[in-house]
Design goal:
The complex is a heterodimer of chains A (about 300) and B (about 280).
Chain A (H helix, E strand, L loop, with lengths): L4 H32 L2 E2 L10 E2 L3 H8 L1 H34 L2 H12 L6 H11 L6 H8 L13 H29 L3 H9 L4 H29 L3 H6 L11 H11 L3 H27 L7
Antiparallel strand pairs in A: 1-2
Helix pairs in contact in A: 1-12, 3-4, 3-7, 3-9, 5-7, 7-9, 8-9, 9-12, 11-12
Chain B lengths: L2 H34 L21 H7 L5 H32 L5 H11 L4 H14 L7 H10 L1 H12 L4 H9 L4 H30 L2 H7 L8 H10 L5 H34 L2
Helix pairs in contact in B: 1-12, 2-12, 3-4, 3-6, 3-7, 3-9, 3-11, 3-12, 4-7, 5-10, 7-9, 8-9, 9-12, 11-12
Classes of the chains: A mainly alpha (about 300), B mainly alpha (about 280).
C-alpha cells in the first residue's frame, strides 16, 4: 500500500472519536490493573502507599495450583463451547435455508430468541431449570426413565461443568447462527446449483463448496465467540458461582471473587491481566487470518 | 423419488427441525412462562408442578404495580440501548471507512488496537469507569450507560462494517468520483447502501449487547429505579427478598415481550438484509 498523506489525515480524523473512547474506557482500565498488579494491594487501591512488589503477584499466581487449574478450565471451557456454538450455529443456520420459504421467518425468529435474553437472566433461568429439587430438567429425566433420581446438576463436579457448557451454548449457538446465516446468504445460488448438477452429495456440497466461501464469516464468529468465552463471567457466576468449590471457576469469575469479595486488588488485577493477555494472543491470531480476506486499497 | 414425494419429505423433515429447535430455544422460556402464573410460594412445590393448580396473574400485578414498576426498566433499556447503537454506528462507520477504503497509513494499527481493546475483560473496566462517570457527575443518569456501551460495541461493529465495506469494488467508488460526486456523496450513495446489511447486523449486536449488560448498569445506577435497566431490575426482584421465583419469572416475561416483538417486527428487515448481501 502506498499511504496517501491527505487520505491518512482524513483517516486519522475519522478514527479519532472511536480511538479516544477506547483509550479512555478500555485501555486506561487495563493499564491501571497492570499497575495495581505490581503492588501488594489488599482492601485498598491506594497504590501510592502500597508496597511495590514488582512481579511477585505474577510469581505467586504461577506457583499456585489453583491458577493452573482455573487457566486449564477456562481454556477447556472455551474450546468446548466455541466448537459447540459454531457447529450448532451452523446447523441452525443451514436449517433456515432448508425449510420452505414460508417457514423461514418463523424458524429464524425462534433461533434468535435466546440471543435477546440478558446473560444474568440466562444464568438464573438455567439455575432454576437445573435445580435438582424443583427444576424441570431433572424431573423430566426421571419421568422419562432416563435417571433414577434427579441428577445433582450444579453440585456434582462433572455435571456442573456440563451444565455451564449447556447454559452457555444455549445462547452462544443462537448468536453464532445469526452470523453464519449472513455468511451463507452470500453464497451465489449458481455455485450451489452447479454442485447439485455435478451430483455432489449434501455433505460434500457443504464441505467443499459452501464452507470455503463461508470461511471468512466463520472466522469472525470464531473470533467473537472465543473472546466472549475466554472472558465468561455472568453465566458462571450466576449458575454455579464457580462451584462446587472452585471447579467451574474461570479466570474472570475468579478475579471477580478476589476483587469484590476478598478485596485482594493486587491479586485480582494479576488475574485480569493474565486473562487479557490470553484473549489477546488468541484474538491477534484470528485477526491475522481474517485480515487475509479483506481487500484493501492498494 | 418423484418431485412430489421429495417435497413431502422436505415438509416433514422441516417440521421436525422446527419442533426440535423450538424445544431447545423456547423450552426454558416456556418454563419461565409457566412459573410466572403460579401463585407465589407454590413455585417451590415438589413434585414439580407443570401446569399450576390455580393459575394467577398476581405476579404480573406485583411486578407491574407501584412497588416495582418493572415497565420503567424497559423504557430505560430502550433509551440506553438505542442511544448506544446510534453512537456505535456513527463511530464504527467512520472508522471502518478509514480502515477499509482509504490509503490510510495507520489502518492496521487502528484495526489491531481496536480489536485488542475489545478483548479487555469487563471486570477490570467497571471500577475505573464508575470513578470516571462519578467525576463527570453522570452517576444515576442514562449517559453513564450510553457512553460506555457505545464504546464497548465499537470493536466488533467496526470490524463487521469494515468487512462489508471491503466487499464494495473500488471501481464503483472511483467511477462515482469521476462522475463528480464528492467524498460524502460517494459514501452515502454508493458505499452505505451496499454495507447496509453489515451495519444492520452490527446495530442488532450492539443493541442486544447493551440490552444485556449488567455489571456496569448495576454499578452506575446504584439502586435508582429511575435509570435501572432490564437485567438490573429483574435481578433486583430476586435479591430484594428471598428468591421470589414467580416474581422473577413474571418480570422476565414482561421485559422479554418488547424485545421479542422487536425481533419479530425486524424479521423482514433481517431477512431482506441478508438476501441483499447475496446479490454480489
Amino acid at each position: 500500500m502506498v499511504a496517501d498523506r491527505a487520505e491518512t489525515r482524513i483517516g486519522l480524523a475519522l478514527v479519532a472519536p472511536a480511538v479516544i473512547g477506547l483509550l479512555v474506557l478500555n485501555y486506561y482500565p487495563i493499564l491501571q490493573s497492570a499497575l495495581y498488579s505490581l503492588f501488594a494491594l489488599d482492601s485498598s487501591t491506594d497504590w501510592l502507599r502500597a508496597r511495590f512488589i514488582g512481579l511477585r503477584n505474577y510469581r505467586d499466581v504461577m506457583q499456585s495450583d489453583q491458577f493452573w487449574y482455573t487457566l486449564f478450565f477456562t481454556v477447556g471451557f472455551t474450546v468446548v463451547v466455541v466448537a459447540l456454538d459454531i457447529s450448532l450455529g451452523m446447523l441452525l443456520a443451514l436449517a433456515t435455508f432448508y425449510v420452505p420459504r414460508g417457514a423461514r421467518g418463523l424458524l429464524r425468529a425462534i433461533i434468535i430468541v435466546p440471543w435477546a435474553i440478558p446473560k444474568v437472566i440466562q444464568a438464573s433461568m438455567w439455575r432454576w431449570m437445573l435445580n435438582s429439587d424443583v427444576g424441570p430438567v431433572g424431573d423430566l429425566l426421571v419421568r422419562l426413565g432416563i435417571a433414577a433420581e434427579p441428577p445433582l446438576f450444579l453440585v456434582d463436579r462433572v455435571l456442573a461443568m456440563g451444565s455451564v457448557v449447556v447454559a452457555y451454548t444455549w445462547k452462544g449457538s443462537s448468536i453464532a447462527a445469526f452470523f453464519l446465516m449472513g455468511g451463507l446468504a452470500l453464497i451465489p445460488r449458481e455455485v450451489i446449483e452447479s454442485a447439485i448438477v455435478d451430483g455432489a452429495s449434501a455433505v460434500r456440497r457443504f464441505f467443499s463448496v459452501m464452507l470455503p466461501i463461508v470461511m471468512p464469516t466463520v472466522y469472525v464468529a470464531l473470533l467473537y465467540r472465543s473472546q466472549d468465552a475466554l472472558r465468561v463471567f455472568d453465566v458462571i457466576y450466576g449458575l454455579t458461582g464457580g462451584g462446587p468449590g472452585t471447579a467451574t471457576d474461570t479466570l474472570s469469575s475468579f478475579a471477580y471473587t478476589a476483587y469484590f469479595r476478598y478485596a485482594q486488588f493486587g491479586r485480582a488485577s494479576t488475574y485480569a491481566v493474565v486473562t487479557f493477555l490470553l484473549v489477546a494472543v488468541v484474538g491477534v491470531f484470528y485477526i491475522g487470518r481474517i485480515k487475509r480476506n479483506f481487500s484493501f486499497r492498494e | 423419488m418423484t418431485r412430489r414425494k421429495r417435497e413431502i419429505a422436505r415438509r416433514v423433515i422441516s417440521t421436525l427441525i422446527i419442533a426440535v429447535v423450538a424445544v431447545w430455544s423456547l423450552g426454558p422460556l416456556l418454563w419461565i412462562g409457566l412459573t410466572s402464573i403460579k401463585p407465589q410460594g407454590t413455585e417451590y412445590r415438589m413434585p414439580v408442578e407443570y401446569w399450576p393448580e390455580n393459575p394467577t396473574l398476581d405476579n404480573y400485578r406485583t411486578v407491574l404495580g407501584e412497588r416495582f414498576h418493572i415497565q420503567r426498566s424497559v423504557l430505560n433499556s430502550v433509551v440506553v440501548s438505542s442511544g448506544a447503537v446510534i453512537g456505535t454506528l456513527v463511530l464504527s462507520t467512520l472508522s471502518a471507512y478509514a480502515i477499509a477504503r482509504l490509503r490510510f497509513r495507520y489502518r492496521f494499527h487502528t484495526l489491531y488496537s481496536m480489536q485488542i481493546a475489545g478483548m479487555i475483560p469487563p471486570i477490570v473496566v467497571i471500577a475505573p469507569t464508575f470513578v470516571l462517570m462519578r467525576a463527570l457527575g453522570l452517576i444515576r443518569t442514562y449517559w453513564a450507560m450510553i457512553i460506555p456501551n457505545m464504546v464497548y460495541a465499537v470493536p466488533l461493529s467496526s470490524f463487521l462494517i469494515a468487512s462489508y465495506f471491503a466487499n464494495v469494488p473500488f471501481e464503483l467508488e472511483d467511477a462515482a468520483r469521476i462522475d463528480g460526486a464528492g467524498t460524502l456523496r460517494t459514501i452515502f450513495r454508493i458505499i452505505l447502501p451496499i454495507a447496509a446489511p453489515g451495519m444492520f447486523s452490527a446495530g442488532v449486536l450492539a443493541f442486544l449487547g447493551s440490552w444485556g449488560e449488567f455489571m456496569l448498569a448495576n454499578t452506575v445506577s446504584i439502586g435508582s429505579a429511575r435509570v435501572e435497566t432490564v437485567p438490573v431490575a429483574v435481578l433486583s426482584l430476586s435479591r430484594a427478598f428471598e428468591l421470589q421465583w414467580s416474581w422473577v419469572a413474571a418480570g422476565t416475561v414482561v421485559t422479554l415481550v418488547p424485545i421479542i416483538a422487536a425481533v419479530l417486527i425486524f424479521q423482514r428487515t433481517i431477512v431482506s438484509g441478508l438476501t441483499a448481501g447475496a446479490v454480489k
